[in-house]
């Protein structure tokens, strides 16, 4: 059976060219949706807030783009071509999805997420904030995993920018870095501590006794001086003897509990170990400036719901940890029944 021959005056129907989305003005799609809905140039123009001439110009562009007349004159007015009828429903769905995508914020459900977060900090801040954070995680986000890394002052800024680290918890001020954001978590002060059966220190610690004692200094790099040394120098007082330097905060309370040295350390650190190590705690005999502890992140993640939730959880863990410490003290000091 032979295919019918095309008459000499017939020409093949034009086929639309490949559509390059990068070259399409999205406003044309909005105009097309209005034209397909109204099937009338003037009403379509009013629907999207254009002038009639602007809508006519948009229709001309659409006809060229799609290779179809789209709207043609019929007996009762304009009518849609078959091609236009095919476009109407998928175009409406597509624009609705686009509006929804642009309107809706990305969702984050702590109770069901299985995401991993990474926090860079030092051991002191981990001991102060981590217990409270873990308690909150267990209640609110049992599927969340947490990695705690030692903060490196040389690299943490770039790691925050790339997302390798979600948060850094450090002492103020924040080292300079582009795009860094910060929030104060707490203000910390100092206390002095010796073991309970210290041969020299009994019920008080005065400045003269303090200067005669040998000291433990927490020095992450193993050198330098601390806040005490700066305060002594500012007042023209003789330097103290630093007998031991330790790189980690958590070593210091144990070291002082097994020696006759004195330790000047953050209050919350000592509160966590005071009873377990049987330590005596005193106010410093010389005024020492308190310091702020900050959480730091990169501005790239300012609006990310998961990061917002993490920052809120870390901020709340400060109070959770403090409350646990107070409760623990009350339990230990309760008289036997």
From TrEMBL:
CDD domains, per the entry: PBP2_Nitroaromatics_like (cd08417)
Origin superkingdom: Bacteria
GO molecular function: DNA binding; DNA-binding transcription factor activity
InterPro entries: LysR-type_TF, LysR_HTH_N, LysR_subst-bd, WH-like_DNA-bd_sf, WH_DNA-bd_sf, YidZ_PBP2
Domain HTH lysR-type, first and last residues per copy: 24-81
Gene3D superfamilies the UniProt entry points to: Periplasmic binding protein-like II, Winged helix-like DNA-binding domain superfamily/Winged helix DNA-binding domain
Keyword tags: DNA-binding, Transcription, Transcription regulation
ATP-binding as UniProt keyword: no
Name of a matching Pfam family: LysR_substrate
PANTHER family: HTH-TYPE TRANSCRIPTIONAL REGULATOR LEUO-RELATED, TRANSCRIPTIONAL REGULATORY PROTEIN
UniProt record similarity statement: Belongs to the LysR transcriptional regulatory family.
Name of this protein: LysR family transcriptional regulator
Organism listed in the record: Corallococcus coralloides (strain ATCC 25202 / DSM 2259 / NBRC 100086 / M2)
């Amino acid at each position: 059976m032979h295919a019918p021959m095309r008459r000499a005056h017939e020409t093949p129907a034009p086929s639309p060219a490949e559509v390059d989305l990068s070259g399409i003005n999205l406003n044309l799609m909005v105009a097309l949706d209005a034209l397909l809905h109204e099937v009338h140039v003037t009403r379509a123009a009013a629907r999207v807030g254009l002038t009639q001439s602007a809508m006519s110009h948009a229709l001309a562009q659409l006809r060229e783009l799609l290779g179809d007349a789209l709207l043609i004159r019929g007996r009762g007015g304009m009518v849609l071509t078959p091609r236009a009828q095919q476009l109407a429903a998928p175009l409406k769905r597509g624009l609705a999805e686009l509006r929804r995508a642009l309107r809706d914020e990305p969702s984050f459900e702590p109770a069901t997420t299985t995401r991993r977060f990474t926090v860079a900090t030092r051991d002191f801040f981990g001991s102060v904030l981590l217990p409270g954070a873990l308690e909150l995680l267990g209640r609110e986000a049992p599927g969340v995993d947490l990695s705690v890394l030692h903060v490196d002052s040389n690299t943490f800024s770039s790691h925050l920018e790339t997302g390798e680290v979600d948060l850094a918890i450090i002492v103020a001020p924040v080292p300079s870095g582009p795009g860094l954001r910060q929030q104060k978590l707490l203000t910390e002060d100092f206390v002095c501590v010796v073991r309970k059966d210290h041969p020299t220190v009994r019920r008080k610690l005065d400045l003269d006794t303090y200067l005669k004692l040998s000291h433990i200094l927490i020095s992450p790099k193993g050198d330098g001086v601390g806040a005490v040394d700066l305060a002594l120098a500012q007042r023209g007082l003789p330097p103290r003897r630093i007998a031991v330097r330790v790189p980690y905060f958590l070593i210091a309370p144990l070291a002082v509990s097994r020696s006759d040295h004195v330790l000047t350390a953050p209050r919350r650190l000592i509160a966590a170990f005071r009873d377990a190590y049987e330590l005596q705690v005193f106010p410093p005999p010389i005024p020492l400036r308190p310091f702020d502890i900050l959480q730091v992140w990169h501005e790239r993640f300012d609006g990310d719901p998961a990061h917002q939730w993490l920052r809120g959880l870390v901020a709340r863990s400060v109070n959770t940890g403090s409350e646990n410490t107070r409760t623990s003290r009350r339990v230990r000091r309760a008289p036997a029944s």
